[in-house]
Each structure stands twice: as structure tokens, then as C-alpha cells.
Design goal:
Elements lengths: L19 E5 L7 H8 L1 E2 L7 E7 L5 H8 L5 E6 H10 L3 E6 L8 E8 L2 E2 L5 H10 L1 E4 L7
Antiparallel strand pairs: 1-3, 1-4, 2-3, 3-6, 4-8, 5-6, 6-7
Helix pairs in contact: 1-4, 3-4
Amino acid sequence: MAQNAAAMVDLRALSPLTEIVIRAGSLNRPDARDILIDGYEDDPRYPNVFGLSTVFRQGASLDELARAAHFPHGKIGYSVLDRIRQELVAVGYEMVLFITPTARYADHHTLGIMKNGQVQQTLDGIAADALLRAFTVVSNPYKGKP
């Protein structure tokens, strides 16, 4: 299987206060930290891409993203890019957003965590806690609806 290099979203070119990232599932469960750590993985379709599965589309509202994703989960987490950045920077990390579309999700992106300019291959507890603080959990009104 040929591997393709994943492009990165130029976060500097976006409005950090309005651009939204969503993630399926509840990030306020007691085991949410472990779920994030376990879910932070490499993408076999792209070399050197490690991170968490998310959905992002420039300019899309939370409603538009949730509707397009039609996750089967009853809850979704969302955050604006600046909130994620702030929480990560406060604990010594940065974020990167890889463009990693899938057959199911054209707007799929992989949220990677960087330290000293290097994408981390695993998610440590400090960075996971920062992400938990950054995301707000809401009910998914489009649960499984195409």
C-alpha cells in the first residue's frame, strides 16, 4: 500500500476564535483521559501522522460539523482552535492538525500534539488533561443521522 504524506492545516491562516474541531464521544466520562491516551495513534495511511481522530472544516459551524459527521455517539466534544492551543501551551505543548480524509469523513483531520517542534507518538497524561479542559461536551442531535 502506497503511503501519502499528510498535509497540515496552516493554523496561522485561520481565525482561532471561530474555527471549531469536533470529536465523537463523551470527554467528561471518568475514563475519558484513558480513552484519549489509547485513541492517540498513528494513521497507517500517512507516514509520521500521530494523533486523535477529529472532524474540522474551515468556516463550518458546530451544527454543520455535527450534521456532516453523523457520529453514532450520543455525545460529542467540541472546541475552538485557540482554546486547544491555550491549554496545550500552558503545559508545554503545541498542536498540529493533519488533513486525513477518510471514505466516511471527508472532513477528517488528525489532531497531533507537538513538543519542541516534534509530533509526539504517544499522548502523555499532562497533554491529555489539557485536551480534556479544552473540549466542551454536548449531546449529539445528529446521532447516526446522515
